[in-house]
């Protein structure tokens, strides 16, 4: 088995203890692979050292693409390709285009964000996620530490560190 598929897993039953445990583990120089929680924990991103997400920038870009495509489509279709005089107004008048523009903006933003999120999260249809402990979807918080990137610490040192950090249970997990 590869060393990159062996993990030490700490299971926490309280989110405050988990946050303090994350700080303690990171301050000892150990790289945390991931933390799994059954519900959002306020402050966990900062504790893990995650940078601010760039997904809002992607959402804005998808929205602008939807707006541009909607306006170009309507101006081309109603102004040049098949112009119709309706009520004496201009061929390419902006006010009637607003509902379609809004809808296409929202549609492309939503679809683009779903696709972007799935790519960034590495959620492929043929890839099964690693589940370190089934209770991470119910009532426990799980901290996984990769043995290959453990800061030079042995498996026993990592287990002791997790126990001292407040883990109610410490296990080993291997994936094949």
Structure, described:
The protein has helices at 15-27, 44-48, 55-81, 98-120, 155-164; strands spanning 6-12, 34-36, 141-146, 169-174. With 176 residues, the chain is of the alpha+beta class. The protein folds into 2 domains: 3-50 and 128-174, 2-Layer Sandwich (Alpha-Beta Plaits), CATH 3.30.70; 55-120, no CATH class.
Keywords:
2 domains; 12% strand; alpha+beta; four-stranded antiparallel sheet; 4 strands; 176 residues; Alpha-Beta Plaits; elongated
Which secondary structure elements does this structure contain, and how are they paired or packed?
Blueprint: E1 6-12, H1 15-27, E2 34-36, H2 44-48, H3 55-81, H4 98-120, E3 141-146, H5 155-164, E4 169-174
Antiparallel strand pairs: 1-3, 1-4, 2-3
CATH class membership of the largest domain: Alpha Beta
Oligomer: single chain
The counted number of beta strands is 4
Which architecture name of the largest domain does CATH use? Answer: 2-Layer Sandwich
